[in-house]
Every structure is written in C-alpha cells, then in structure tokens.
C-alpha cells in the first residue's frame, strides 16, 4: 500500500500522506488487533477511525492514572509526616 520513492543512495523518501498511511496501519495492527492482510482490506474499504471511542478510552485511562497518582501522593504525604 505504501511505495516510497528512493534517492540515489537507496534511502526511502516518504511523503506526509504515506506516513499517515503507515500510522493508520500501525493503529489497526497494534491497537485494534488486525492482521496485516486484515488492515489492508480495512483500509481499502475505508474503515472509519473511531475517534470517539479513542477519546473515551484516553479519558478513561487518564482518570485511572489520576486516581493512582493521587493515591501515591497521599501515601508519600503520610510517609513524610
């Protein structure tokens, strides 16, 4: 799906559009559990990006993280006292 051009040295030169495709492939494979073939098919179909799901997940993770950090802070304050 991504065919970068090469310079005289053989280095691959990616366009911003190709980099966005690579990011999307990474997201489908690593975060959503697709196989490479499945990600290729999903991209050909134009699988929508579930930004609302991603946003909800990030907010949930942030809430959990804040809770854990507050717990650690209170333990450290107890130790200090």
Question: Strands, helices and their partners?
Answer:
Elements: E1 5-6, E2 12-13, H1 16-31, H2 36-45, H3 51-80
Antiparallel strand pairs: 1-2
Helix pairs in contact: 1-2
Molecular structure report:
With 81 residues, this protein is mainly alpha-helical. Helices cover 69% and strands 5% of the residues. It has a two-stranded antiparallel ribbon with strand order 1-2. Helix 1 crosses helix 2.
Structure at a glance:
By secondary structure, this protein is mainly α. The protein has helices at 16-31, 36-45, 51-80, and strands spanning 5-6, 12-13.
Provide tags for this entry:
two-stranded antiparallel ribbon, 2 domains, 81 residues, elongated, mainly alpha, 69% helix
The Rg value, from CA coordinates, equals: 21 Å
Give the strand tally: 2
Give the spatial strand order of the biggest sheet: 1-2
Large-scale geometry:
elongated
Strand residue percentage: under 5%
Count of helical regions: 3
**H/E series:** EEHHH
Low-confidence stretches at least 5 residues in length (pLDDT < 50)?
none
Helix content: 55-70%
How would you classify the helix and strand content by structural class? Answer: mainly alpha
Major sheet attributes: 2 strands, antiparallel
Q: How many structural units, i.e. domains? A: 2
Straight-line N-to-C gap:
60 Å
Average predicted local confidence, pLDDT: 85
